[in-house]
Task: inverse folding
């Protein structure tokens, strides 16, 4: 970690994460990976965010669009920008430039909008609970990414998408060593348990006890299948709870986005699987996101967001449901003026 640190901007900044949570909910838009793939700037498969270097204007634009829609946080796009992912595609030399650029892009938007700036670390894909060598390697990966985030002057760091509670604990340790607030979110598969054993409430309890400032769930489960897990976590911890589902219609029978199946044309899909390139028919609509937000708030969730599949209109629906009026609310649907369905002057009855 270098000794240089980002100097605070001259423009007013929002209170820190913990101060914000003490006075109300926080919204953090995620989902950069699939949204930028959908827009044609990121390759599905390796899912390495080279777009940060190749098309930084696209990353900046999505940051700005999420803030416009109501996100209180600009999350640096360093998901899957860790050493293992860069090794996989044979571009280790991009590791530090990519991370620092991502943090710089996010910093510029956070400074301009007065929103919070968050760093990000994520699942390594090499962690093995019974192999201490992988623990050492993963911790080193987290340390370097958290170090770059600290250099950028982030308000806090998100550690996310952990199927192993042990890996989540390594991320938390790295963030705490850097003396930064930590939001740690777990992934829960179809068995409702962590891959290294134990329930999500138990894992969140241990993380909170070890110093996590916010704990909860993100990714793979959509609103319908994440919601039933949240109450148990709220009851288990004394810190704010996070909920960031994917914006897809998962079900009891197909509880994660990897298990979704398209009954109409499975023959067209690689491996008969919609994930990750043919999830479009399963996308949640804005009203479903609003419904989830209401229910999650009633369950005690205080840190809200959306993961894979999220788009700005989803974020706006979430923010508005929480009582916000973001800039994008200027364009919230008003069907009273619709030419067929409206009631105002200039409307006409719909044709049969």
Result:
């Amino acid at each position: 970690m270098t000794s240089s640190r980002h100097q605070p901007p001259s423009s007013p900044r929002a209170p820190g994460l913990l101060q914000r949570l003490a006075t109300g909910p926080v919204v953090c838009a995620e989902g950069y990976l699939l949204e930028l793939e959908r827009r044609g700037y990121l390759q599905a498969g390796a899912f390495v965010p080279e777009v940060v270097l190749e098309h930084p204007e696209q990353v900046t634009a999505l940051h700005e669009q999420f803030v416009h829609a109501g996100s209180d946080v600009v999350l640096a796009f360093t998901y899957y920008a860790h050493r293992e992912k860069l090794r996989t595609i044979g571009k280790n030399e991009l590791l530090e430039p990519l991370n620092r650029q991502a943090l710089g892009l996010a910093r510029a938007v956070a400074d301009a909008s007065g929103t919070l700036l968050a760093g990000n670390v994520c699942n390594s894909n090499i962690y093995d609970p019974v192999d201490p060598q992988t623990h050492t390697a993963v911790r080193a990966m987290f340390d370097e990414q958290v170090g770059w985030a600290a250099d950028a002057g982030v308000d806090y760091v998100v550690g996310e998408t952990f199927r192993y509670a042990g890996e989540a604990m390594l991320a938390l340790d790295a963030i705490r060593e850097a003396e930064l607030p930590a939001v740690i979110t777990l992934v829960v598969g179809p068995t409702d348990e962590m891959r290294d054993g134990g329930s999500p409430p138990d894992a969140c309890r241990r993380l909170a006890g070890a110093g996590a400032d916010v704990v909860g769930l993100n990714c793979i489960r959509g609103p319908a299948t994440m919601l039933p897990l949240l109450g148990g976590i709220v009851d288990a911890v004394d810190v704010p709870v996070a909920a960031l589902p994917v914006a897809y219609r998962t079900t009891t029978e197909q509880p994660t986005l990897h298990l979704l199946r398209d009954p109409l044309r499975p023959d067209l899909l690689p491996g008969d699987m919609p994930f990750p390139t043919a999830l479009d028919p399963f996308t949640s609509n804005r009203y479903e996101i609003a419904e989830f937000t209401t229910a999650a708030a009633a369950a005690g969730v205080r840190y809200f967001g959306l993961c894979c599949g999220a788009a700005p209109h989803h974020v706006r629906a979430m923010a508005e449901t929480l009582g916000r009026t973001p800039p994008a609310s200027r364009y919230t649907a008003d069907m009273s003026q619709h030419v067929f369905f409206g009631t105002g002057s200039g409307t006409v009855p719909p044709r049969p």
About this structure: The radius of gyration is 20 Å. The domain at 17-337 is CATH 3.20.20.330 (TIM Barrel).
